[in-house]
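Q: Study each token:
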Amino acid sequence: MAIFDIGSGSIGGAFVNLNPGKLPEIIFTARHSIPVQEQLNFKRFLESMGKTLEGLALTMQKAGGGVSVNEAHVVLASPWYASQTRLVRYSQEAPFTITEKGINKLIDKEISAFQNSKLFTYPEESETAPEIMESKNIQLKLNGYVVVEPYGKKATQLEIAVYVSMIPSDIRALIKTSIAKFWRPPRIHFSSFSLSAFDAIRGIFPNEPSFLFMDIAGEITDISLAKDNILLESMSFPAGKNMLVRAIAEGLKITPALAASELDLYAENNGSPDHAKKIGEIIKKAGEEWRTLFKEAILRFAKEFPIPRTIFYTVDDNVNKWFGKTVEETKFARWGEEEGSFVVRSLGNVFLNGFVRTAAPEFQDPFLAIEAIFTNKFSSR
């Protein structure tokens, strides 16, 4: 299996041996950054994503030495897809028998409604119509109780939580064409990172039915809310790691590429104290802007749902501690189920090493690890 992780700041790739019932084995990873633009233009951004994907695939092909790719799993983060969880409800006075055909009919009807919704007909920034990327039944209840194996059972009330995502057809075509230049796998699956992470977290933390998950990427921060084991809502705001890069570039009057290197040096505590202090001040100011957008997103959630105290997050290693501390220091007493600060957990390499096998330390990548965990489970169904 080849896994491709397509984000807004970088693209990662991995070769993975799947072992249903056991830990997946990551045998190779690589990651290429999408060049940071001084002013983000979506058309150039999309072209840059395609070129970066091809460059990554070439790196993987050379490393693989002719390895055969039987299957590819493409996992997308924002802004490359849109998603929604829809609750399907059906009831009758007399008990009815649950069948696979009946459930699929209800789900197909809900997907059709999603296709006709404003969210589906308005693909942001894309010039082509979107297509359904994936649909997944994430929870099923009979008469108010969660049931894992419903077929053949009788009930008067049925409720299904269906996660549906969509992708603009030009973006799907670009990705397929880029991969086909190097391999022609018989099967290519497309998934969203929010669903992959939700499913992985639910499996790793079975006693955490409600949580927030944040994917802090290059250009965008995605926040997903899980409540009682249902991925209820997701939202994004246009700020991530590249906000810090652009702030450094502007503050030091250098290119974004040099600013990215400065951020790496700062994270590694390299450089003179005076220079580090200057960069620290720039980052602090940019961080306040990110924190403001984060608070606004939480407030939007809080208008409809109590906010869980636990936050899981993924972010690049060089800014992991900084973003973690920023989230921890954000108070939310009047928004949540309990007063106090967030309980913040980084889904980083150290933690995820207990759930995947990696051929070598240099192949550790938290995003690809989460996707390997999800794909291993997905492939065994």
DSSP finds eleven helices and 15 strands in the chain.
